[in-house]
Write a structure and sequence with these properties.
single chain; 70 residues; mainly alpha; elongated
Amino acid sequence: IIVDGANGLLVPVESSSAISDAIVRVKKDKELIRCLAKNGSETVKSAFSYSTMLDDYYSLFERIVFSAKK
């Protein structure tokens, strides 16, 4: 769900220097903050809307039921 630089910043696992660099980058770049916030909000609204979640759960239950019938 996270797209590096669009709706969040990805850093390597256990890399304190990369985390630090990302924090400094965000702190210094107000346009980046606005972009990440706007795109992050849109990502959450589209990926986790009531309708999307309902469709995803329906598909999951449908697969479970049909696989149990085989």
